[in-house]
Design goal:
heterodimer; A: about 375 residues; alpha/beta; 2 domains; about 10% strand; B: about 300 residues; Alpha-Beta Plaits; 6-stranded mixed beta sheet; about 30% strand
Chain lengths: ~375, ~300
């Protein structure tokens, strides 16, 4: 027993010296709880919605206000035509497009059944479900309201419900989860391997003393670091290609947009994580610590970027936090290109964010690396 | 011995501070071509910091150093290209084979084509590693790892090589063979700067510098350093070495008492303390079987220097 205590005490002492591991072990439960608690809230509200109002009447405006009042739809703008709706959905500005037909108010007063179109981005099946369910509920409520007895006396009761939504699912109409998951998986895999491989590769050289020999050699810093990370860039692209091929072969994941564009933007994404891996390698003293840090970083990437849980369901504060993670932006880029055929100009926002993150990460890594190379 | 007066290393008043801590203070060293120059000093004395500045990977905060004809602060890349560096950890990729390690370092130092092939064959031959080219470096024993590390450090035929504790953890026979090779390199005109904790190795250097607390305490030929320490050595062969040590420690003029089995080794200043020591042992009734004089070594001088410094 005394020996067991001695071993435990020694272990605790070692743990106390290993500040990094200790800090991660203590902050892990709290951060995991917060991330999961916020992310798992799958009650999706605030679905970004654009409205194509062809009636422009008091009744149509009232309907739009009622939709917004449910809390499930955020009206982000009015559009002129279907092409605008398509663009908004493709660029991710909106997830739902509502089309109010031209004779909406007159049909309502004449008790003719009215069908509103609800164009929904189907790439996230969870959001889609909420959007359609809520609209259906709203239609039922409005129909009941319209069927008040006073009015029913003068007009014959229509055979079908006076107000209904016709959901039109764009992108991923069969609602297959794989189609949604595969583009995201590219991002998650790249995040994991790029950060961990880079961080570990450099820590390994330092741990084994080979970094010293590299530094004393005439090779420049750029040659050392560039040479070390180049193979991992190739590995990253290899992984991406494998996921794409497997997704296409096994799950029929579409490639609606330009693959060269996806590969080009993946370079930004990969660069961000290589820089982060470098940064980790300057903090971690051992390969083990480098690995722990990488796992620690992976957690929020899976939970709050929109990979598993819909981004829209998270509180705004968490959404803001998630902006700093490259995966948040790359997920959108990959999904939009693959599922919706988005063009570069549909993703200005995401590309700008990715570029900014890359710049910050590289600058931080360069500063730290210069100090810590020796 | 060095065959020319050409200075391969010329450090003048070299200093390096990290914040408030001064790691190296006003170090001046000159190493001539073909010389084996030993740097001795306790751990943390500033040897590694000094070495790094001479290699051009750490900028001095004071003074200057010209190494292989280039200023380390102004032309570090020229310095790096013309030196070899072997670390205590041997800097080998344990998951690469012998040939792959050598090949990597050859390319790192810009060797290509036929010249690369020729140099790789040459170092394989010199290090007798030719039969082991396919073996993983991690599977080699300490002595063979050391040979491989030296082969990698000399692949580009540098005029100057730095060896940082190159024989730590290597068996005595391998150490001896290693020093034969070092002397062979020096004879062929390569300059060698080596740090070590082994005093027998220090005696194999042409010249030495003692570094402690970032300063050079003494430098020169091993003989001269030993002579300057002014120590006489007497060895008593006694039955009760512990008792004898107890009696003699602290006697005026006694610098050091050390036992080696039945031998008590006494380092003293001048001749009188030896007689006084003998008298004291006799008075205490300790049987002294024999007493002989011995030569003072670099280790004696080194220990005396560190002790003196601690007392100060």
């Amino acid at each position: 027993m005394r020996r067991l205590l001695a071993v435990s005490l020694k272990e605790l002492r070692q743990l106390r010296r290993d500040r990094l591991t200790l800090a991660m072990m203590l902050s892990m439960p709290v951060s995991e709880l917060l991330l999961l608690g916020y992310a798992i809230n799958t009650d999706i509200r605030h679905i970004q919605t654009v409205v194509l109002d062809r009636d422009r009447s008091a009744a149509s405006r009232r309907l739009v206000v009622q939709m917004q009042a449910t809390g499930y739809y955020d009206i982000v703008g009015d559009v002129e035509n279907y092409e605008d709706i398509a663009r908004a959905l493709r660029s991710g500005r909106a997830t739902v497009g509502l089309v109010v037909p031209a004779r909406f108010s007159s049909d309502l007063t004449r008790r003719r059944p009215v069908r509103l179109q609800l164009l929904v981005d189907g790439s996230d099946p969870q959001i889609l479900g909420t959007a359609i369910d809520t609209a259906t509920g709203l239609a039922a409520a409005r129909s009941a309201e319209l069927a008040t007895p006073g009015l029913a006396q003068t007009h014959p009761r229509p055979a079908s419900a006076p107000l209904s939504f016709e959901p039109i699912i764009l992108y991923n109409p069969e609602q297959r989860t794989a189609v949604y998951i595969v583009p995201g998986l590219i991002g998650v895999l790249l995040t994991m391997t790029m950060v961990m491989l880079t961080a570990m590769a450099l820590t390994r050289e330092r741990e084994r003393g080979t970094l010293e020999a590299l530094i004393v050699s005439p090779a420049t810093r750029l040659e050392i670091v560039g040479g070390k990370i180049a193979p991992y860039i190739a590995i990253g692209y290899g992984q991406m290609t494998l996921v794409l091929l497997a997704g296409w072969w096994f799950f029929d994941v579409p490639t609606a947009g330009s693959l060269p564009l996806l590969y080009l933007l993946a370079a930004l994404f990969i660069a961000a994580h290589l820089a982060l891996g470098l940064l980790f390698s300057t903090v971690a003293r051992t390969q083990q610590q480098a690995m722990q840090m990488s796992f620690f970083f992976l957690l929020p990437n899976i939970l709050i970027t929109g990979f598993v849980f819909p981004f829209e369901s998270m509180p705004l504060s968490v959404q803001h936090l998630a902006q700093a993670l490259p995966l948040t932006h790359f997920l959108r880029v990959a999904r939009r290109i693959l599922l919706k055929g988005a063009h570069a100009e549909d993703m200005n926002h995401e590309i700008a964010w990715l570029a900014a993150i890359v710049a910050v990460f590289i600058a931080a890594a360069a500063v730290r690396f210069k100090k810590k190379l020796l | 011995m060095p065959d020319s007066d050409e200075l391969v290393v010329d450090a003048q008043h070299l200093s390096r501070r990290f914040g408030a801590h001064v790691a190296v203070r006003d170090v001046s060293l000159q190493v001539r071509r073909g010389e084996i120059f030993g740097v001795l000093g306790p751990n943390g004395a500033g040897k590694s910091t000094a070495l790094r500045m001479l290699c051009g990977v750490l900028d001095p905060t004071g003074g200057r150093a010209v190494v292989v004809g280039h200023d380390v602060a102004r032309e570090p890349e020229r310095v790096k290209a013309n030196i070899g560096y072997m670390t205590q950890s041997f800097s080998l990729y344990t998951d690469l084979t012998v040939a792959e390690n050598i090949g990597f370092y050859a390319s790192l130092y810009g060797l290509a084509g036929a010249a690369r092939r020729r140099r790789i064959d040459a170092v394989l031959h010199e290090s007798e590693l030719a039969a082991r080219t396919g073996q993983l470096a991690g599977e080699l024993s300490g002595g063979w790892k050391q040979r491989l590390a030296l082969a990698c450090a000399t692949i580009h035929q540098p005029p100057l090589i730095f060896l940082d504790e190159p024989t730590a953890g290597v068996d005595p026979l391998s150490r001896r063979e290693f020093w034969e090779r070092i002397h062979g390199l020096a004879a062929a005109g390569t300059t060698v700067v080596v740090t070590t904790h082994y005093m027998d190795e220090a005696e194999r250097c042409h010249r030495l510098a003692f570094i402690s607390h970032g300063e050079v305490f003494d430098s020169g030929r091993p003989d001269d350093i030993v002579a300057r320490a002014g120590l006489a050595i007497a060895e008593f062969i006694v039955d009760d070495v512990d008792q004898a040590t107890y009696l003699l420690q602290g006697l005026p003029g006694v610098e050091e008492c050390a036992h080696y089995g039945r031998v008590l080794r006494l380092a003293v200043h001048g001749g009188e303390p030896v007689a006084a020591a003998r008298a004291r042992l006799d008075r205490a009734g300790l049987a002294v079987h024999d007493m002989r004089e011995s030569r003072a070594t670099v280790e004696d001088a080194f220990v005396a220097m560190v002790r003196r410094e601690r007392r100060a």
